[in-house]
Fold this sequence. Notes:
Helix content is 27%, strand content 42%. The chain has helices spanning 3-22, 28-32, 52-62, and strands at residues 34-41, 49-50, 70-81, 84-94, 102-113, 116-126. The radius of gyration is 15 Å and the shape is globular.
Amino acid sequence: MTMTMDVKHCIIELEKTALDRWCRGDPSGFLEISAADVVYFDPFLPTRLNGWRELSHYYESIRGKIFALHHEMIAPLVQEIGDAAILTFQFISSGDDHAAELRWNCTEVYRRQTEGWRIAQTHWSFTSQGTQEE
């Protein structure tokens, strides 16, 4: 396995693990893998969040309020650039009956740090009805 494949697998697994926790109402999975200087864009917020403290404050305000019984990461792509890795994917989540399906585009910029890969930049946006398959 090449270094690039190791990085790809590592980044996707970090993200999937955090998303699994997120869909059970626990944002701590993302907090644990976010850098101190993380920046965060979300369509529900009027401005960018700057730093882990602001992100933590926001996540605590929604802890236990977000649940998805079904979720899927679609077409994840990792582009490694030195000590950075850019992960892009589409994310679909829904409740029990799939009626309230939400579709997202996500970009995460990970940075290699001494403690491992950490998210330095996050950008979530709504997507159109279609999804891109690999």
